[in-house]
């Protein structure tokens, strides 16, 4: 579904500023975003998501946003991370789903002391508190996460150390904001903004993707940070506060409306309760974050009356996206192609309303490309970036990224 907030009153002096805000959604959310951006890059003339004014990334979206802000095109990301054609399959998200053994061991070492403390407390006051209450301190020995997110930080730090790229917010050609949430205060922090721009980009991404329970909180300075999506879904206001005139938003996670889904294998259930607890929890989570996003989008109409915000996301009847495991990677080509086709369809259906909005910001819809029904996301991958803009170092970056993927794979197998 494509939503458009049309409130722009006119072009500003100096030309319009364009931004991109990407939400979370696990590995599959990131792949969906790549597919949607491929469709937009291809079908909207004058638009290049490797060269917009402001990037905002939340959770999985921070991975895509930080890479784009460093000048790697959507097409290059698609060729390296999605397409299996012409190259061996190397990237596996299992590299980023490694058990958090260091914390397991550290927490386990606390058990003897906590047991002794609880037993002594019970012995001193057996009538005041029961045995189970006395041993409640053992909860401190429970690890804060299942997986270790340090490989994510190391991977990005290595990638951004290439010539022509940077791990420093202040050295980027364009504004990048990565959102995390302060665990102790519940406040959202925009890494990359003044006062928070000395944090390495890779560290900010690690914090923004630290979904509680799956990844441990990330220490930055004397504070601990968790997933930026816990506060808001898109944090689109972060880009609007930077003076963006036209903001593209992609949100891969929406609640599912089983009553609207067409019949077929993808529908699976007439009622979601048939899917058991995982399906019920997934729907609950999606409904919560989506309703919160809708409230935020509605506020932008009055808070930013001179801006245009365009949102792309799956339809509520989209069975494929709802029933695809967000932590799976095997179906990445299907998800990318699905996002690509869905976004193309939305552009075509809304072209009459969207065209004048985009035109006043210097970009136009290429209807000839949208009318070509035989196009596949690999058609978009064949687009090549402007070598005059990117420079020769991009080939070196591509080769280095390939080498990094090979190195990560060898580490996982050892």
Percentage of helical residues?
40-55%
Provide the succession of SSEs.
EEHEEHHHHHHEEHEEHEHEHHHEHHHH
Oligomeric nature of the chains: single chain
Low-confidence parts, pLDDT < 50 over ≥5 residues?
A: 7-13, 86-91, 386-394, 408-414
Structure summary, number of beta strands: 11
Describe this structure as you would to a colleague:
- Helices cover 43% and strands 12% of the residues.
- A hairpin with a 2-residue loop joins β7 (218-220) and β8 (223-227).
- By secondary structure, it is α/β, with parallel strands linked by helices.
- α1 packs across α3 and α7 runs antiparallel to α8.
- The two termini are 44 Å apart.
Structural topology:
Blueprint: E1 2-6, E2 18-22, H1 26-43, E3 44-45, E4 54-58, H2 60-69, H3 74-81, H4 101-108, H5 111-124, H6 131-134, H7 150-159, E5 175-182, E6 188-191, H8 201-208, E7 218-220, E8 223-227, H9 236-240, E9 246-250, H10 276-303, E10 308-312, H11 319-323, H12 332-349, H13 351-359, E11 364-365, H14 367-371, H15 377-381, H16 387-390, H17 393-413
Parallel strand pairs: 2-4, 2-9, 4-5, 9-10
Antiparallel strand pairs: 1-10, 3-11, 5-6, 5-8, 7-8
Helix pairs in contact: 1-2, 1-3, 1-12, 2-8, 7-8
């Amino acid at each position: 579904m494509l939503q458009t907030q049309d409130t722009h009153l006119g072009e500003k002096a100096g030309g319009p500023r364009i931004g991109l805000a990407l939400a979370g959604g696990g590995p599959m959310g990131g792949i969906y975003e790549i597919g949607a951006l491929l469709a937009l890059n291809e079908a909207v003339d004058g638009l290049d998501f490797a060269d917009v004014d402001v990037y905002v990334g939340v959770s999985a979206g921070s991975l895509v946003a930080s890479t784009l802000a460093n000048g790697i095109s959507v097409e290059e990301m698609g060729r390296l991370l999605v397409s299996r054609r012409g190259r061996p399959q190397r990237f596996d998200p299992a590299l980023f789903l490694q058990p958090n053994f260091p914390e397991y061991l550290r927490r386990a070492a606390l058990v003897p002391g906590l047991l002794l403390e609880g037993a002594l407390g019970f012995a001193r006051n057996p009538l005041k508190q029961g045995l189970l209450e006395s041993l409640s301190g053992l909860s401190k020995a429970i690890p804060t996460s299942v997986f270790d997110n340090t490989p994510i930080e190391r991977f990005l730090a290595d990638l951004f150390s290439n010539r022509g790229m940077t791990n420093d917010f202040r050295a980027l050609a364009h504004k990048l904001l990565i959102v995390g949430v302060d665990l102790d205060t519940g406040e959202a922090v925009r890494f990359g903004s003044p006062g928070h721009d000395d944090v390495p980009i890779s560290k900010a991404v690690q914090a923004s993707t630290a979904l509680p329970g799956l990844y441990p909180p990330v220490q930055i300075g004397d504070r601990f940070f968790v997933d930026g999506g816990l506060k808001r879904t898109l944090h689109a206001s972060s880009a609007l506060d930077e003076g963006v005139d036209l903001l593209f938003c992609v949100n891969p996670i929406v609640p599912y409306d089983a009553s609207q889904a067409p019949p077929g294998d993808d529908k699976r259930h007439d009622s979601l309760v048939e899917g058991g607890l995982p399906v019920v929890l997934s729907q609950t989570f999606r409904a919560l974050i989506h309703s919160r996003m809708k409230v935020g989008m509605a506020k932008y109409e009055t808070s930013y009356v001179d801006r245009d915000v365009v949102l792309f996301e799956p339809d509520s009847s989209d069975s494929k996206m709802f029933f695809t495991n967000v932590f799976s990677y095997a179906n990445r080509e299907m998800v990318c192609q699905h996002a690509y086709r869905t976004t193309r369809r939305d552009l075509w259906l809304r072209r009459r309303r969207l065209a004048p909005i985009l035109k006043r910001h210097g970009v136009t819809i290429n209807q000839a490309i949208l009318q070509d029904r035989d196009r596949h996301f690999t058609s978009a991958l064949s687009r090549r970036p402007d070598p005059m803009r990117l420079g020769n170092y991009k080939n070196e970056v591509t080769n280095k990224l390939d080498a990094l993927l090979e190195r990560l794979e060898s580490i996982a197998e050892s």
